[in-house]
Specification:
By secondary structure, this protein is α/β, with parallel strands linked by helices. The protein contains 4 helices and 5 strands; from the N terminus they run βαβαββαβα. A 5-stranded parallel β-sheet has the order 2-1-3-4-5, sandwiched between helices.
Length: about 140
Amino acid sequence: MGEGNEIQVITFDCPIPVFIMISCVIIDDEKKSRKTFEKIVERYLSSKLKIVYSAKSVNDGVSAIHKYHPDLVFLDIGMPEENGFKLFEYFDKVPFSVVFLSAVQNYAIDALRRGAFDYLLKPLDHIELENMIERFENIKK
């Protein structure tokens, strides 16, 4: 820049809230479960959570994760081709947080040992999902 061309920096005395949308991929073999999740997000969390892809298998989900780089992955465990735990075998380092979705509590300890951010039971309760998103936001600040 030549002489006399100064950059002016503007500062604010009060913090400006910045709202960053959390991106997510859903991986669940049951179409009804995926649709229910999508409706809950649309109704209660549309300003905070964006579903970038809804996958019906681990393999489909892995492709979506590589393409979209989501913040969160909502992962069903009991699926016919590969169970949800197989997802971790596709990544040397897991660059996203995982929230397991299951109709049973039996897998909760295994999920937490694998580094799950949370474990939500089906049928999904919107209040539990909202609370989980709030915790996720607080950690990511």
